[in-house]
Amino acid sequence: MLEVRNLVKHFGGVRAVDGLDFKIKQGEVFGLIGPNGSGKSTTVNLVCGIFPPTDGEIMLGNINLGAIAPHQRVDAGVARTFQNIRLFGDLTVWQNLWVAWRDQPGQEQGWVSNWFGRSTSRRQEIQKLLEFSGLGDKADHLASNLAFGEQRRLELARAMAAKPKIILLDEPAAGMNSAEVKDLCHRVLAMKEMGMTVLLVEHVMELVMNVTDRITVLNFGRPIAQGTPLEIQNNKLVQEAYFGSSENAQGGGN
Amino acid sequence: MTYLLGIFQTIGVHTLLGLSAYLLLLTGQLSLAQVGFFAIGAYVSGILTVIFTWNIFPALAIGAFTAGFFAFLVGFPALRVKGLMLVVATISFSEIVRLFFFNLSWRVNVNGLEVGPDSTQGFREIRYFAANGWEQIHIVGLIWFMVIVVMLALWWLDQVRAGAVLRAVGTDELAAQSSGINLTMVKVAAMTGGGVIAGIGGGLFAHSTTYVDHHTFVILLATFAVSYPIIGGLRSVMGTLLAVIFIQGVIVEGLRFMGDYRNLIFGLLIILVMNLRPQGLLDGHLLEDLKKLLGRLTKGEKADA
Amino acid sequence: MNFDHIDIIQSLIDGVLFGSIYALIGLGFTLIFGAMHKLNLAYAASGIAGAYAGLMSLTILGLPALMAFFIGPITAGIIGLLLYFACFRFMPRGNHLAPLMASIGALFFIDEVIIHETSGSPLSFPAVLPDAYFFLGEFGIRGDLLIVMGFSFILMAIVMLLLYRTKLGLGTRATSQQPVAALLCGIPTHRTNGTTFVLAGVLGGFAGCLLAASVGVLSPLLTLPLTIKGLIVTVIGGLGSIRGAIIAGFAVGAAEGLFLLVRGVNERDIYVFLLLFLFLVFRPNGLFGTTINRD
């Protein structure tokens, strides 16, 4: 599905990403973890095209993402959330989804309806997505008036509204309490059951270890280990680079 | 009566200018090119009725279309890059347009009279309305008809997805782009729409005053244009209308006795408003405050009763 | 029309010499942009206002002519500080439109004050600079413009020294790159920004006086073209690039000289302003602008 080959990004003298390869399969939840500054978020931003890579290729199926503009990558099938929530605060909850909305493949309503359709044209489907996200009763609230956890869920729903082939989650659990993290675990697993492919960049081990199928560990922009959550937990190299000591590593795994 | 109609005329034309800036401000972009589009609309439609003796309506339409076309041409390179660049580009554009008409001399003999733009002397003889028996009340009626049409169009835009997309781009460009929105396309479309609206305003202005010259189309007018929606807030088109009525009706007309000091006060007013309410005077907060106040007052009355 | 190479080179020389004034204005815009990532559109107006103050010190107080070059920059520096407080100091950090709009308001305020005080008519500025004329082979060089250029180079050198050799400069550059981090490191951000505005203002005051002295008149009509050309210099040089602003200043001056020769004084500015669009299309980051950004 998503394949990254020899990805390199330098900021001046800083090698944020320095030769990264990974391949995410259809329907898989793929984890990208690593200490602060190891290049995880930069990787997400490179896939979305916020800045161009110094070197390397990003392929989504047969589409070379590097060759198309950032907004076209959403049409190609890439949607994302942000580490620091970025909603359209002046719009209502359901308008946030309306802006990002793409019709299901095969059910497109056409250009005119897309841009100049009244609010009623897709309201039902949007409401369904809101119910799924636990925001069913907040549809007409201003996005900026939502509570923190609700804002996170809305951002996730907005990414899903674009009907992507793959969703990039950039530290979705940042700032959440443990109940909210559990809820997020269920959501990501539910998305996986719906057949979605997910790239998860995360610090919170409880989430990573419970939902991912495979994990790549980054340090200084380079992959230092790859494997299933269990393999990663027992990897000495990872424990040294990331967890610092093996005690911490066990904590989140259960 | 004539005096009052004159004020209505000015407020109508300035509302069109303000609405043209409003449309682009929804996407978070500040343009000082509105006066350039206004000038293009004025000169093109004026040339069509005067030199080519067209009917006013197709002339206004072509004037608006030309202004929109130039808005597209300017918007495309200027909106690809970051926001502040647009200000520089649009100031330059407005001055280019002004200097172009400052140099434009196109004198033609029509029905035994020499007419047309005469560079520094300005473009006189835009007498379509007088020549066709329109009275001032008709002219004011036409201007306000166009104002209402444009306001309805912009109100309608907020009912459809395009309006939400414009506001999304204005709130957070990065998030909008990551939601699959082509930022350049949306901004250029808004710029083009703004150009058309300003072009209509320019055509109406030229024909209602019968005389334009390059002094009319200075950056000060562009500043007025953007200050209306900024002061009125971006919640709805009504804010812009109220701001025009406030500035043109109260500051400019009401302070007529202060003579040239009015422009000075306008400058101070902008600085003051920006410091006190950077989001505009008539923003959501003010409306909510007013609602609360009204609610409290009516409650108080009930309690009294 | 036909021009031989002598005409062309002559007008390029005149243009480059005059361009030093644009370089100074562009440098001022760049300093402020570099410090706060905001444009101060009233900046060139404050320079012109400074020149008026210098002129008034001569006509009203009867000071010796050279004192204009002292009073002018100081007044412009004070206006710069006032502009900082009126349009920038109390604005929310993320809001770019509000300070921009306020500075446009300030531009018209300054302009209207000048128009009011002078009844809108241009005033003649005393010939402070020598009226000498040198010949370099076939080409003539105006002595006053040569002095303008030399003076500008000295000012630029002083600015560079201040930026790269003093603690103030270190603070300015730190604030420009990471305002919050700089604040946490104990750099008084507001004071640093205020100082930058004063410094830029003084620079603008010199530019205004030099402009008035070499043109011979002061008029409120000078403000807007000077503002736009300063902005164009800033954009062509690359927003925030000091070296770019200086080089672009001379380049815009040269282009202006050439357009003056080819198209005459009435159309000259059209072509200078069109240069901006050429850059926006083909090189939107300017000569020395950077594209590196990281969130």
Task: Describe this protein's structure.
The complex is a heterotrimer of chains A (254), B (305) and C (295). Chain A has 254 residues and is of the alpha/beta class. Chain A has a domain at 21-87 and 149-251: Rossmann fold. Chain A is built from eleven helices and ten strands. Chain A has a six-stranded mixed β-sheet, sandwiched between helices. In chain A, strands 2-1-4-5 form a four-stranded antiparallel β-sheet, covered by helices on one side. The longest helix of chain A is centred in the last third of the chain and has 16 residues, at 178-193. The radius of gyration of chain A is 18 Å and the shape is globular. Chain B is mostly helical and 305 residues long. Chain B has one domain (2-231). Chain B starts with a helix and ends with a helix. Chain B is globular and about 70 Å long. Chain B has helices at 2-25, 34-50, 56-80, 83-103, 128-131, 136-157, 161-171, 173-178, 183-209, 219-232, 237-253, 261-276, 284-304; strands at 108-110, 113-115. In chain B, helix 1 (2-25) runs antiparallel to helix 9 (183-209), helix 2 (34-50) runs antiparallel to helix 3 (56-80) and helix 2 packs across helix 9 (183-209). Chain B has a two-stranded antiparallel ribbon. Chain C contains eleven helices and four strands; from the N terminus they run H-H-H-H-E-E-E-H-H-H-H-E-H-H-H. A two-stranded antiparallel sheet of chain C has the order 1-4. In chain C, strands 2-3 form a two-stranded antiparallel sheet. Chain C has one domain (5-282): Orthogonal Bundle (ABC transporter involved in vitamin B12 uptake, BtuC). Chain C has helices at 5-36, 43-59, 68-88, 97-118, 143-165, 167-177, 179-184, 189-215, 223-237, 242-263, 268-282, and strands spanning 123-124, 133-136, 139-142, 217-218. Helix content of chain C is 72%, strand content 4%. In chain C, strand 2 (133-136) and strand 3 (139-142) form a beta hairpin. Chain C has 295 residues and is mainly alpha-helical. Chain C is globular, with a radius of gyration of 19 Å. Chains B and C meet through helix 3, helix 4, helix 10 and helix 12 of B and helix 4, helix 9 and helix 11 of C.
